[in-house]
Amino acid sequence: MKKLKIFFTVVALLFSFESYAQCTFRNTAFEPGEQLSYNLYYNWKFVWIKAGSATLNTVSSRFAGKPTYKASLITRTNSKLDRYFVMRDTILCHASLKMEPLYYRKAAREGKRYYIDEVFYSYPNYNCHVKQHRVKANGDVKWKQVTYNQCQFDMLNIFLRARSFNPKGWKKGHVVGFPIISGNDSKPAMLKYRGIVNVKADNGHRYRCLQLSYMEKEDGDYKRIVDFYITDDTNHVPIRLDMFLRFGVAKAYLTSMKGLRNDVGSLVK
Question: Which of 264, 206, 217 is nearest to 240 (CA)?
Fold first, then answer.
């Protein structure tokens, strides 16, 4: 009986380690110092107009005493579009050097809607514990804590991780599923591979890109949130983003990229 208990204890530990290991990942795509800049466009009455700018920067940092990758995504509409719709989004995250999500924050002003989301991650006993925080425009504050036996991801941490996915052998329709978390809930989400397409950036160059759709499950169906067109090389830099927003469709086109980890092998001559 004692040996049997030891056996089941070892098996349980193995499963725990396997669950914990899923929260770590290798980083082959980026390094601190990477800077990506974009032009934003919005479809206004069947005409695409320049609507603002966006930046995605990654640096070395620390969080809760640990060395981290800190990524920040900032989007801003210009004065022309502000007369119709204001968008001021600042999203940042911290990931451990083993790519474990540690922190996420989104401060969003989208039209009349304003909110702040925060997620704090920890990993006690090989589980994933999240402390969620949401502040609404009216001042309402909500805190929530949940422990999961599988890893959780926010939209920016999963994007950092996805850049190191190896798409070799993927066929159109291939799906990578994961839970996505925000300041007040967790829901199923997925990345769907849609094939290879050449995309011209706003820096004048054309790139061979993988098209990936980020989708979230709502009311039983998956809703398309963003299409990413990322370079078909080891950097997996997003060249274009198609964002399906509540108020319409916006697109972001790369204007510059600096501090890349690897050579750009997807340039179309």
Answer: 206
Q: Across residues 243-263, what is the average pLDDT?
A: 90
- Give the SS3 label for residue 154: coil
Q: Which helix (H) or strand (E) holds 79?
A: helix 79-82
**Contact criterion met (CB below 8 Å) for 240 and 187:** no
Most confident of 74-83, 159-168, 237-246: 159-168
Integer angstrom CA distances of residue 193 from 60, 137, 173, 177, 215:
30, 36, 5, 12, 11
CA gap 47, 254 in Å, rounded = 20
CA 162 – CA 100 distance, rounded (Å) = 13
The whole-angstrom separation of Cα 153 and Cα 100 is 9
Give the confidence band of 82 by pLDDT, cuts at 50, 70, 90: low
58 and 30 in contact (C-beta within 8 Å)?
A: yes
